[in-house]
Amino acid sequence: MRFFPLEKLINLHDHYTRRFKIDSVELLLIQRAGERYLIEARCPHRDHPLDAATIADGIIQCALHQYQFAIADGQLIHATEEPCRGLRTFELVYDGNEVGVMLNDGE
């Protein structure tokens, strides 16, 4: 596994949302109510990008079909069509003044 830095801690604030791409992995770094989350950046239902999604009360809602997922654990909360898997979540790793993620090469 390898550490990939994502953002400097000084740049993080509530309502922060930013998409990152590391090799083939697309990630969404989110900060809400002082908590930070790292989730996959595309909806597992129809692969729609989640960087335009609505985030409120710990729930991210895809703009395409309004599927809802918990940002803390990725659990599917609401499906408007056929059910899909939950979002992949990733553990944040802190290194000095940066936050990042550990990924396997080619993940």
TrEMBL record:
One of its GO terms (molecular function) is 2 iron, 2 sulfur cluster binding. Gene3D superfamilies: Rieske [2Fe-2S] iron-sulphur domain (2.102.10.10). Residues 3-101 form the Rieske domain. Signal peptide: none annotated. Keywords: 2Fe-2S, Iron, Iron-sulfur, Metal-binding. It comes from the Bacteria. InterPro entries: Rieske_2Fe-2S, Rieske_2Fe-2S_sf. This is Rieske (2Fe-2S) protein.
